[in-house]
Design brief:
Strand order of the largest sheet: 6-5-4-7-10
Largest sheet: 5 strands, mixed
Helix content: 25-40%
Number of strands: 15
């Protein structure tokens, strides 16, 4: 327990002297010295320098040994797979993307190619990896091991895929819903760092939500908690039969048909704002007086209607807007959604924009892989 407490402090606080580590853990100097000696011998800690400019002998600074282990995180979308490799401290050392259309039923090879490319960029081989987490649309059913709610990713449906990828990469593999991973990233370094009960509303090509209550992710009996893209709402066709009933990612109806990227671009055109993509339409709206504000107000009303249904059931302290639509809409869209939400639901959660730079899904996959790897690597018993 002392070893793990010390390692976690070194991760959180950065390099520490023996004296400072003893103060933070409450350990005596002899015990702290023995602990650091043990961790150094185990290859988990190294001396990184000395504290100078103070009376007496220079104190040595200790830090986590970055090369103690590495992990891989992957983000899967309709066009390809992005992989990143990080050392045990969480520093990303390599990244690589492979084009892989969603219609491709062979996913083992491009997934392995993406990982190998990230490892090559980091100057490593597969033997360096300890754990791998893959973020995909849909959710893995814990009862069957099958990916559900993602008919547009046929290659990821095989129940044996996870075991096959684990054998290929030589690490344990977890396949997790992409929005759930994005919510994990928001908790660690984004907008939800101060919240135990929050919802991440992800508005992108697809629409989904991640629900965190008491600091724990709500998954549901089949892994489908948060699949709000199929939620019936006024003004949207019903998604009868769910996502498996159609070939598209929207399941043919529901919230997705009101605020998904395609719907946002179409709404913009109705207001005279012609742009090829939803993010471009939202950026153009910001510089188009009159029509731009009307478009944003209409979109905010749609987002708030769906959000009111979620908030009324979950009552979170915080809602985070993420995905390409949430990000591109920026602070103005957030303000309008917040105003629209007033009166639609009794709870009044705080509303924030995503605070994660880069890919939240990839960042969340790496955090998940790091948590699992640290539990194994940092176990000195």
């Amino acid at each position: 327990m002392n070893d793990r407490a010390a390692l976690d402090l070194l991760l959180e606080e950065g390099p520490l002297t023996r004296t400072r580590l003893g103060e933070l853990t409450g350990l005596s100097k002899p015990t702290a010295s023995q602990l650091l000696g043990r961790l150094t011998a185990a290859g988990l800690v190294r001396v990184t320098g000395n504290v100078t400019g103070r009376p007496g002998p220079n104190a040595q600074l200790y830090e986590i040994e970055p090369t103690a282990a590495h992990v891989a995180g992957l983000a899967v979308d309709e066009k390809g797979i992005t992989a990143a490799v990080a050392d045990i401290t969480g520093t990303v050392t390599g990244e690589h993307r492979v084009a892989a259309p969603a219609t491709n039923k062979r996913v083992r090879e491009p997934a392995a190619e993406a990982v190998d490319g990230a490892l090559a960029a980091a100057g490593l081989g597969r033997a360096a990896l300890r754990h791998t987490v893959i973020g995909t649309p849909g959710a893995l059913d814990p009862r069957t091991g099958t990916l559900r709610y993602a008919p547009h990713l046929p290659g990821w449906q095989a129940p044996a895929l996870r075991a096959e990828l684990a054998a290929l990469l030589g690490t344990p593999v977890v396949i997790e819903n992409d929005v759930n991973l994005a919510a994990l990233a928001e908790r660690h370094r984004g907008a939800a760092r101060d919240a135990d009960d929050y919802v991440l509303l992800w508005i992108d090509e697809g629409v989904g939500a991640a629900i965190v209550l008491g600091g724990r992710l709500l998954r549901g009996a089949t892994g489908g908690a948060g699949e709000v893209g199929y939620m019936p709402l006024p003004g949207a066709p019903l998604a009868r039969g769910g996502p498996e009933a159609t070939a598209g990612p929207d399941g043919g109806g529901g919230f997705q048909m009101l605020v998904g990227s395609a719907a946002v671009a179409a709404l913009a055109r109705e207001h005279g704002i012609d742009a090829p993509t939803a993010p471009q339409a939202l950026l153009l709206a910001a510089s188009t007086p009159g029509a731009g504000e009307d478009f944003l107000a209409a979109l905010a009303a749609r987002v708030a209607t769906g959000l009111a249904a979620i908030v009324a059931v979950v009552d979170p302290e915080l809602v985070v807007l993420g995905g390409e639509v949430g990000r591109a809409g920026g602070e103005r869209l957030r303000e309008l959604v917040e105003d629209e939400l007033t009166g639609l639901a009794l709870p009044r959660p705080r509303l924030r924009l995503s605070g994660v730079e880069g890919s939240p899904v990839l960042a969340g996959a790496l955090y998940g892989a790091l948590a699992a790897a640290r539990d194994t690597v940092f176990d000195t018993t």
